[in-house]
Amino acid sequence: MTWVLYLGIGALGLAVGSFLNVVIHRVPRGESVVRPGSRCPRCAHAIAARHNVPVVSWLLLRGRCAHCREPVSVRYPLVEAGTAALFVAVTARFGVDPALPAYLYLAAVAVALAMIDVDVKRLPNVIVLPSYGVGVLLLLPAVLVGGDWSALVRGLLGMTVLFALYFTLTLVHPAGMGFGDVKLAGLLGLYLGWLSWSSVWVGTLAGFLLGSVVGVALLASGRADRKTALPFGPAMLAGAFLAVFVAAPVTHWYASLLTAGA
């Protein structure tokens, strides 16, 4: 039954990833994600349902539009497959838990925001701000089932702390990050705080570390210079999900080092 669950979640992730491709393309342009239906980004011809099967259609069409035969970016199937893989990983982490839908939602939002930030160096309010309310609503069933109100309180405190931290950093060094990063920090604080305070700190430190590593790599390769604006959202999101999966063992390992040293 576990494999049946994973297969179902993987299929859901593929479908969500297909929709996220629409979100990634249209939201920065201020277009509706509902109408019109999926179209070729080059010739604007409507994509038939049989040509819109996640990953499979791209492979069968050899990465080309069925109408104009122009190449279709490999990023489309990668977003679909990546979303499916992240959905399965999150399900393996939480199992059949009332909090699972909340973290699946965060996974979908993370994929969309990371790609949009890479493309246009923005984290759209239309995605980030409603996610605060959606996150709280999706976490409430876990509170009602488990009766652990402290997790929700910790999540709200984590949201406040990370928002305040990033807001302060923006005031101190405005060129270092944008206010979109501040708003994203609050959202991540909600989800990480729900898990534990160690998740908040591991996720935050991991985000800064990953951002620094990517920045140094781009500078060393000549693909960026000291004046190049680099998106920080993807590093924040990657750090947060790293914490979702490894914060507990990392904290345990660090605590064992302190105990051994004492």
Helix-strand layout with pairing:
Elements: H1 2-26, H2 56-60, H3 75-94, H4 100-120, H5 125-146, H6 149-172, H7 179-195, H8 197-221, H9 233-261
Helix pairs in contact: 1-3, 1-4, 3-4, 4-5, 4-9, 5-7, 6-7, 7-8, 7-9, 8-9
Report on this model:
The protein is mainly alpha-helical and 262 residues long. It has two domains: 1-96, no CATH class; 99-262, no CATH class. It is 72% helix and 0% strand. The protein has nine helices and no strands. The longest helix has 29 residues, at 233-261. The chain is globular and about 65 Å long. The termini are far apart. The model has no long low-confidence stretch (mean pLDDT 92). Its EC number is 2.1.1.-, 3.4.23.43. It comes from Pilimelia terevasa. Keywords: Cell inner membrane, Cell membrane, Hydrolase, Membrane, Methyltransferase, Multifunctional enzyme, Protease, Transferase, Transmembrane, Transmembrane helix. Residues 105-216 form the Prepilin type IV endopeptidase peptidase domain. This is Prepilin leader peptidase/N-methyltransferase.
Rg, rounded, reads 20 Å
Question: Percentage of helical residues?
Answer: over 70%
Order of helices and strands: HHHHHHHHH
Tally of separate domains: 2
Structural class: mainly alpha
- Sheet-strand content, in percent, reads under 5%
Largest sheet: none
Strand tally is 0
Q: Alpha-carbon distance between the termini?
A: 46 Å
What is the count of helical runs?
9
Low-confidence stretches: none
Which overall shape is indicated by the principal axes computed on the Cα atoms? globular
- Mean pLDDT equals 92
Main location: membrane
GO molecular function, one term: methyltransferase activity
Transmembrane segments: 6-24, 102-120, 127-145, 151-169, 200-220, 232-255
Membrane topology: Multi-pass membrane protein
